[in-house]
């Protein structure tokens, strides 16, 4: 498996090895040992799956406050999405900066979104299924969002449309108004 750095410290793209033969293919979708060898030691405690029934569905930008912050390891198992991580660690040299990548059932790429980052995605196929691991329990009290089109973040979503959003995501605050309790720690 290839682990590739991005413009944001700690945000990584993981490209699994896919073994094809006359039956189809095989791939490891997660390896604790291989991530640990690469210096990524995570204890995933929950697996999530979502299905979005229409192209242009946007879920995000979401995060959980400390002490319930979550690292997410995201992949797309049907269709394709544009997946985004935003650095929202106070005092970070890349605060408010984003990274985006296409994840698809075909390319099998994964995005590692660390604690202290907001996460969201837009579906770019007729429907899409997303699966992700998290390293902290779901905690509705700590669940927060930032509006998907926040102008200071300026995510370049792949389709210039009014996306399909949840009621909650339609009313999310701006980055400036959002409650954040993550602080950048220099490595
Ligand atoms: C995230 C989550 C939601 N739920 C419930 C709450 C709610 O009734 C229903 C749908 O929740 P939401 O509307 O928050 O689902 P969704 O908008 O898909 O939220 C997800 O978006 C992506 C971008 C993420 O990064 C995830 O961490 C998560 O925030 O599922 C759980 O029971 N456990 C969970 O871990």
From TrEMBL:
It comes from Lederbergia ruris. It catalyses: dTDP-4-dehydro-6-deoxy-alpha-D-glucose = dTDP-4-dehydro-beta-L-rhamnose. The keyword Cytoplasm does not apply. Catalyzes the epimerization of the C3' and C5'positions of dTDP-6-deoxy-D-xylo-4-hexulose, forming dTDP-6-deoxy-L-lyxo-4-hexulose. Keywords: Isomerase. This is dTDP-4-dehydrorhamnose 3,5-epimerase. It is an enzyme of class 5 (isomerase). It comes from the Bacteria. The lineage of its organism: Bacteria, Bacillati, Bacillota, Bacilli, Bacillales. Its EC number is 5.1.3.13. Gene3D superfamilies: Jelly Rolls. Pathway: Carbohydrate biosynthesis; dTDP-L-rhamnose biosynthesis. PANTHER family: DTDP-6-DEOXY-D-GLUCOSE-3,5 EPIMERASE, THYMIDINE DIPHOSPHO-4-KETO-RHAMNOSE 3,5-EPIMERASE. Belongs to the dTDP-4-dehydrorhamnose 3,5-epimerase family. Homodimer.
């Amino acid at each position: 498996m290839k682990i590739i750095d991005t413009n944001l410290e700690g945000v990584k793209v993981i490209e699994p090895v896919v073994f094809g033969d006359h039956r189809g293919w095989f791939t490891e979708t997660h390896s604790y040992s291989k991530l640990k060898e690469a210096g990524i030691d995570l204890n995933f405690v929950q697996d999530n799956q979502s299905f979005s029934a229409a192209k242009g569905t946007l879920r995000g930008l979401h995060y959980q406050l400390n002490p319930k912050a979550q690292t997410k390891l995201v992949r797309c198992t049907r269709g394709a999405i544009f997946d985004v991580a935003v650095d929202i660690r106070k005092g970070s040299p890349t605060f408010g900066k984003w990274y985006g990548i296409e994840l698809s059932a075909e390319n099998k790429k994964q995005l590692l979104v660390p604690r202290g980052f907001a996460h969201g995605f837009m579906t770019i196929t007729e429907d899409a299924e997303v699966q992700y691991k998290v390293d902290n329990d779901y905690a509705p009290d700590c669940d927060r969002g930032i509006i998907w089109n926040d102008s200071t973040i300026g995510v370049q979503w792949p389709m210039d449309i009014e996306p399909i959003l949840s009621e909650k995501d339609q009313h999310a605050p701006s980055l400036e108004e959002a409650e954040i309790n993550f602080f950048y720690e220099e490595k």
